[in-house]
């Protein structure tokens, strides 16, 4: 029996009402379902997903199996994991930074169940700051700040700045929390050293904090920074958040980390202490089995296997990029990123282009509008599908672009 709606007499976080309904993926799902009902025999190819499709690698599976066996033996069973991660994984992540010639001590590394969680949770330890967020970008930065009632200013990423905005004279010089994502989701654009140095210098000059999301660093080709700590001065102004999701195929396995340098301080308190306090209070650690799997992904052999996954996806990206180049369609990404961000042809809006591709050739992508106002005439394609699907999608797109 359906109950009568009876409101409880409490206050809610009113900031939630200020958030736009996250209708992007539900709207995509709705339009695809409707099309399928009308055309039950149509084979739809999804080039919109931000999820990986290849299985976990051999090293990861072997480490997981071994860890599962340990969990089944009284002598090697483990209960709660340490709040900040097992020492073996924190050390493996630190060693991984050493591969990039970056010195990050293990005790500045905090293991978690996802970069999304860390990006959302870091707001807990920050006050009500002015926040700078590129537009378009991964929507979690904006939504988590709206939930906390923070004032957000957008920095426009557009074709003129190659979707790599830099601080300019329009941004008054004061302390901000600045979100940067490189390689970027959704645009695939990557900051080079000089550009990232401009941001670090701006942060140092204004007393700002950069939250640097490097979830796609494994996709970088060429001499671009994989970590913000490759830039001088970043230890004094930046937190870095990274993930095993897109590198090692851990989207369903869940493991990531944040770096909070020991010398990062605000209002007379070390941010590291605040983050530790937050994590010990609200979080109980990543399972042992998963942390062993993550450790394996960073081993010499595991790392090489992960690069094979990346290469597979990037070969898909090349197939899509080749078509767009040949058709004279403007795009960024697809070289150091699994995402391709293209300008919708013939002045179409991103939703019109979505409908056009779905109706004409049954290829599904992601309308740029879902990532911000600046995305209204752009479209995101991803290379996370299978080679066969990607090639078939390109054959179909060839006919109509
Ligand atoms: N950061 C960016 C830029 C992303 O695109 C994503 C996932 O799509 C995440 C973080 C989330 O990563 P995780 O799976 O570790 O939560």
What is this entry, summarized?
This protein is an alpha/beta fold and 401 residues long. It is built from twelve helices and 15 strands. The strands form four sheets. The chain has a seven-stranded mixed sheet with strand order 2-8-7-6-5-3-4, with helices on both faces. It has a four-stranded antiparallel sheet with strand order 11-12-15-14.
Overall description:
The protein has 401 residues and is α/β, with parallel strands linked by helices. The chain has two domains: 22-51 and 302-400, Aspartate Aminotransferase, domain 1 (Alpha-Beta Complex), CATH 3.90.1150.10; 58-298, Type I PLP-dependent aspartate aminotransferase-like (Major domain) (Aspartate Aminotransferase, domain 2, 3-Layer(aba) Sandwich), CATH 3.40.640. The chain is built from twelve helices and 15 strands. It has helices at residues 24-38, 58-71, 87-99, 115-121, 140-147, 193-206, 245-248, 271-282, 288-298, 300-327, 350-361, 387-400; strands spanning 45-46, 109-112, 130-135, 151-156, 176-181, 209-213, 238-243, 256-259, 265-266, 269-270, 331-333, 339-343, 363-364, 366-367, 378-382. The strands form four sheets. It has a seven-stranded mixed sheet with strand order 2-8-7-6-5-3-4, with helices on both faces. Strands 11-12-15-14 form a four-stranded antiparallel sheet. The protein has a two-stranded parallel ribbon with strand order 1-13. Strand 5 (176-181), helix 6 (193-206) and strand 6 (209-213) form a beta-alpha-beta unit. Helix 2 (58-71) runs antiparallel to helix 9 (288-298) and helix 10 (300-327) packs parallel to helix 12. The model has no long low-confidence stretch (mean pLDDT 96). Bound molecules: pyridoxal-5'-phosphate. Pyridoxal-5'-phosphate binds at residues 50, 114-116, 138, 181, 185, 213, 215, 243, 245, 251, 256.
């Amino acid at each position: 029996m359906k109950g009568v709606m009876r409101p409880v007499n409490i206050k809610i976080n009113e900031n939630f009402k200020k958030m736009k309904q996250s209708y992007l993926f539900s709207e995509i799902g709705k339009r695809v379902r409707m099309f399928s009902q009308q055309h039950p025999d149509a084979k739809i190819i999804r080039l919109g997903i931000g999820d990986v499709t290849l299985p976990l690698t051999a090293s990861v599976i072997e480490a997981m199996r071994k860890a599962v066996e340990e969990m089944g033996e009284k002598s090697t069973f483990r209960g709660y994991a340490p709040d900040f991660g097992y020492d073996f994984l924190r050390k493996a992540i630190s060693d991984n930074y050493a591969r990039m010639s970056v010195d990050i001590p293990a005790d500045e590394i905090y293991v978690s169940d996802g970069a999304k969680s860390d990006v959302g949770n870091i707001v807990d330890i920050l006050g009500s700051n002015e926040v700078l967020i590129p537009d378009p970008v991964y929507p979690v930065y904006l939504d988590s700040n709206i939930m906390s009632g923070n004032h957000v200013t957008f920095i426009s990423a557009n074709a003129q700045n190659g979707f790599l905005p830099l601080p300019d004279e329009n941004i008054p010089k004061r302390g901000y929390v600045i979100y940067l994502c490189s390689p970027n989701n959704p645009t695939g654009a990557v900051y080079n050293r000089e550009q990232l140095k401009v941001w670090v210098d701006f942060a140092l000059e204004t007393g700002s904090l950069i939250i640097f999301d490097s979830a796609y660093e494994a996709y970088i080709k060429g001499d671009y920074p994989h970590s913000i700590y490759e830039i001088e001065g970043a230890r004094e102004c930046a937190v870095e958040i990274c993930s095993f999701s897109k590198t090692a195929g851990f989207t369903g396995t869940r493991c990531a980390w944040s770096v909070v340098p020991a010398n990062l301080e605000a209002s007379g308190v070390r941010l590291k202490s605040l983050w530790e306090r937050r994590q010990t209070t609200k979080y109980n650690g990543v399972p042992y089995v998963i942390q062993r799997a993550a450790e394996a992904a960073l081993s010499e052999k595991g790392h090489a296997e992960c690069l094979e996954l990346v290469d597979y996806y990037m070969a898909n990206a090349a197939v899509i990029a080749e078509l767009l180049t040949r058709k004279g369609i403007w795009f960024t990404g697809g070289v150091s990123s699994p995402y391709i961000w293209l300008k919708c042809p013939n002045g179409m809006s991103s939703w019109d282009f979505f409908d056009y591709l779905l109706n004409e050739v049954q290829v599904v992508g992601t309308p740029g509008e879902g990532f911000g106002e600046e995305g209204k005439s752009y479209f995101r394609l991803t290379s996370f599908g299978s080679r066969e699907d990607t090639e078939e999608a390109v054959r179909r797109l060839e006919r109509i672009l």
